[in-house]
Amino acid sequence: MADGAAVQLRPIVSWPRIVRPNTSYLLTVDVELAEPGAWPYAEEEYAVGCVFAGTLWCSTEPLGSTMLLLHRFGGTYGPVRFALHVGYNRPATPLVLTLLTGGGVPFHQLRLPVERAGSAAKPKRLPTNLPRLGADLGRWGKERYGT
Asked: Which of 29, 93, 105, 116 has a CA between 20 and 30 Å from the CA of residue 20?
């Protein structure tokens, strides 16, 4: 690798902008050269790692390798994929994607905003006018079983 050599990368990220509780979604991450041009490295490929930070409202799970291989012609061999598992807490923080060098050194972070779906996303409360099960069951049980 040439001293001080660098290429500008453009991340390509697919994520849900609106999420519902207790639901899973697919996240994909890819990169491309921001400005195609001369490849400054001796190697044909450059490894880029992808990591999502954990939050209180969701977790991510890699679906295969989390390393992208950027080749000298400006693309990769395909995106990396993650499963996003959403819990019941309201998203208070964005998803945070960190891109790493092949050696594991962070070099770029992206904040991906996420909102919770409207009223359908809230857990439903039981109606307060339900019959009292204990009182009715006790009376029904005596009649039914003759005790």
From this structure: 29
Single-letter amino acid code for the residue at 42? A
Tokens of 53: 């930070």
- For residue 49, CA distances in Å to 17, 36, 136, 143 come to 23, 21, 61, 68
User: Residues with Cβ < 8 Å from 91, sequence gap 6 or more?
Assistant: 19, 55, 57, 58, 114, 115, 116
3-state secondary structure of 144: helix
Cα–Cα distance, 80 to 64 (Å, whole number): 7
Question: Which residues are paired to 49 by β-bridges?
Answer: 67, 100
pLDDT tens digits, the chain, 147 residues: what are they? 445 667 888 999 999 999 999 999 999 999 998 887 788 888 999 999 999 997 888 999 999 999 999 998 888 999 999 999 998 887 778 999 999 999 999 999 999 999 888 644 444 454 444 444 444 444 433 333 333
pTM of the model: 0.74
Q: Tell which CATH architecture fits domain 9-145.
A: Sandwich (2.60)
